Amino acid sequence: MSNADRKVVVTRWWWVRHAPVRSDGGNIYGQSDIACDTSDREVFEAVAKILPREAVWVASNLQRTHQTAAAIWAAGFPKPASMAKDAAFAEQHLGQWQGMNRAAFLASRLPGSHWFADINERVPGGESFMDLYHRTKAAIERLTAEYAGRDVIAVGHGGTIKAAVGFALGGLAEQGLAFDIDNCSVTRLDHFVNAGRSNWRLPFVNQQPWIADARHKAMHQPAGPEVVKPA
């Protein structure tokens, strides 16, 4: 085997879901361009600590991903020179369902579902999860080729990141829906290429670094004064 055949190119994707939305009124928002809440600085400080410097930044075209990225930079991460905005990474367009009460809608669907609908069900005036999956997959393939060997930080949405996980699992789109993707969580997917062969590894999914940070702080807090009880 030649040295060229031994060379492995690793492209690391760091997916960050946007911060929580508080102004939706309990309604489905999908691709509605709604703002998010970035007031919890401790969360963003913890996220900023684990993301790689010198990375390529990309976000969806929706403002909540831009606000989330800005909160990470404000929490101590060096602001990049630029961040691409790619509509391919937007949340699923939920068409006529956008604006409907979320709890009432989900109660009307089959129980136990991982998503709003079957992956092939195209929402009236919108798209199916598979539509979201295919555009996300195409953008990942394009950017992985363009930035081969780099770190890519992608600020996206729950559906987008579930689609990326399904792709990394070998194109099992529906299996990606089985994963929880919490607000501000970090998911890392590594792409390997060697001698024309490629595969993915999933180092972690839905990592919430502020939880570990809080535990670390609690463990290292100075002990309070000892209280001596009378005999």
What does this structure look like?
By secondary structure, the protein is α/β, with parallel strands linked by helices. It has one domain: 3-Layer(aba) Sandwich (Rossmann fold). Helix content is 33%, strand content 18%. It has 8 helices and 6 strands. Helix 2 packs across helix 3 and helix 5 (129-146) packs across helix 6 (158-168). It starts with a helix and ends in a 12-residue tail after the last helix. Mean pLDDT is 92; it is low at 224-231.
Secondary structure: elements and pairs:
Elements: H1 3-6, E1 9-17, H2 41-50, E2 56-59, H3 63-74, E3 84-85, H4 102-107, H5 129-146, E4 151-156, H6 158-168, H7 173-176, E5 186-194, E6 197-207, H8 209-219
Parallel strand pairs: 1-4, 2-3, 2-4
Antiparallel strand pairs: 1-5, 5-6
Helix pairs in contact: 2-3, 5-6
Ends distance:
77 Å
- What is the H level of CATH, i.e. the homologous superfamily? Phosphoglycerate mutase-like
Helix content: 25-40%
Mean pLDDT, all residues: 92
Query: Which of globular, elongated, flat, extended, rod-shaped describes the shape?
Result: globular
CATH uppermost class? Alpha Beta
Q: Biggest sheet: strands, sense, closure?
A: 6 strands, mixed
